[in-house]
C-alpha cells in the first residue's frame, strides 16, 4: 500500500470511531433490548422475553392504526411531492423577471423548522381566527366555520398538506438541478421541429429526470416515515392522525415500555428500508427500459 493511501485511511479513523460510537453502539443496544421487557421507570430491571415485544406490536390496535396513517401519509406525499416538484422545477428552470424572489419564496417552507410549520398552520386552520375559514366565508363558499383539525378525515388531509408544503421545495430543487443540466440545444432543436412546451416536457424532460427519481422518492419516504412535528403540533396524539413516530414516542415515554418502543423503532426502520428497496427496484427498472 502506498504511503499516500495509508494517510488517506488514517483520515478515515475519526469517522469510523464516530460511527462506531454514535451509530453502531446504540443500534446494537436497541436490537438487544428489543428482546427484553424494559421499563423506563426501572431500566436496570430487565427480563428476557424473546419475540414477545414484536408479537405484541402487531396485536396493538394503536400500532396498526399508526401504520395505516403513515401509509396514507407516505403514498399521498410521494404522489403530491413528485407532481408539484416536477411542475415547479419546470417553471423555475429558466430565468425570468423575479426568478430569484420566486426561488426564495419556494425555499422558505423548507427553511422553517417542522414544528414552526405545524404551529403556524394550526393557527391558519383555527376555526375562530384562522385565515382559511375567513377566506372561504368571504368568498361565500362556506357559511359556518369548519373545525378542520377535529374531523378525522379533514385533519389527516391538513397534516399531509402541511407536510407536502414543507417537502416540495427540496424535491423541486433536485428536479431543477437535473433539468438545468439538459443542453439548451436540445430544446432549441425541439422548438425548431415544432414541439410545444408540453411535448418537450414529456419527450425531453421526463426521460432526463428519471435518473433522479430515486433520490426524490427516498427523500419523500424518509420525510413521511419521520413525520412527527407537524402531526403532533396540529392534532397532538389523536388516534386518527397518529403517525408511527408519535406512536413510538407514546409507547416508550408515555407507557414507559422501552423494550416494546425499541422493537417498534426497529420495525419502523426495517419498513422504511423495504419501501426504499422496492422503489429503487421499480425506478431503476424503468430507467433501464
UniProtKB/TrEMBL annotation:
Which CDD domains does the annotation name? TM_PBP2 (cd06261)
- The principal location of this protein is membrane
* Residue ranges constituting the ABC transmembrane type-1 domain according to the UniProt record: 67-283
GO BP terms: transmembrane transport
Top-rank taxon, per record? Bacteria
Q: Does the keyword Lyase apply?
A: no
Q: Does the keyword Membrane apply?
A: yes
Look up and give the membrane topology term: Multi-pass membrane protein
Q: Name one GO cellular component term.
A: plasma membrane
Q: Which InterPro entries match?
A: MetI-like, MetI-like_sf
Q: Where in the cell is it found?
A: Cell membrane
Per the UniProt record, which residue ranges are transmembrane?
9-31, 72-92, 101-124, 157-177, 262-283
Database matches in Pfam families = BPD_transp_1
Stored PROSITE patterns: ABC_TM1
**What are the alphabetically sorted keywords of the record?**
Cell membrane, Membrane, Transmembrane, Transmembrane helix, Transport
Q: Please give the family membership noted in the entry.
A: Belongs to the binding-protein-dependent transport system permease family.
Provide the protein name: Sugar ABC transporter permease
**Organism ancestry:** Bacteria, Bacillati, Bacillota, Clostridia, Peptostreptococcales
Amino acid at each position: 500500500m502506498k504511503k499516500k493511501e495509508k494517510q488517506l485511511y488514517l483520515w478515515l479513523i475519526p469517522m469510523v470511531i464516530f460511527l462506531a460510537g454514535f451509530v453502531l453502539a446504540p443500534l446494537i443496544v436497541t436490537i438487544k433490548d428489543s428482546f427484553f421487557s424494559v421499563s423506563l421507570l426501572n431500566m436496570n430491571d430487565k427480563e428476557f422475553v424473546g419475540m414477545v415485544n414484536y408479537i405484541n406490536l402487531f396485536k396493538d390496535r394503536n400500532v396498526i392504526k399508526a401504520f395505516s396513517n403513515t401509509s396514507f401519509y407516505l403514498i399521498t406525499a410521494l404522489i403530491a411531492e413528485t407532481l408539484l416538484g416536477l411542475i415547479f422545477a419546470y417553471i423555475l428552470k429558466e430565468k425570468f423577471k423575479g426568478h430569484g424572489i420566486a426561488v426564495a419564496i419556494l425555499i422558505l417552507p423548507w427553511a422553517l423548522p417542522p414544528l414552526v410549520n405545524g404551529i403556524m398552520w394550526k393557527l391558519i386552520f383555527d376555526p375562530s381566527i384562522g385565515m382559511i375559514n375567513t377566506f372561504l366565508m368571504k368568498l361565500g363558499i362556506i357559511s359556518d366555520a369548519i373545525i378542520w383539525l377535529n374531523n378525522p378525515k379533514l385533519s389527516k388531509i391538513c397534516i399531509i398538506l402541511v407536510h407536502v408544503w414543507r417537502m416540495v421545495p427540496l424535491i423541486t430543487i433536485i428536479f431543477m438541478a437535473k433539468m438545468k443540466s439538459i443542453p439548451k440545444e436540445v430544446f432549441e432543436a425541439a422548438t425548431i421541429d415544432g414541439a410545444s412546451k408540453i411535448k418537450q416536457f414529456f419527450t425531453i424532460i421526463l426521460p432526463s429526470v428519471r435518473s433522479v427519481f430515486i433520490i426524490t422518492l427516498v427523500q419523500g419516504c424518509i420525510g413521511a416515515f419521520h413525520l412527527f412535528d407537524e402531526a403532533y403540533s396540529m392534532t397532538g396524539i389523536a388516534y386518527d392522525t397518529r403517525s408511527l413516530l408519535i406512536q413510538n414516542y407514546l409507547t416508550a415515554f408515555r407507557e414507559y415500555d422501552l423494550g416494546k418502543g425499541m422493537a417498534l423503532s426497529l420495525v419502523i426502520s426495517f419498513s422504511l428500508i423495504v419501501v426504499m428497496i422496492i422503489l429503487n427496484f421499480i425506478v431503476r427498472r424503468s430507467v433501464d427500459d
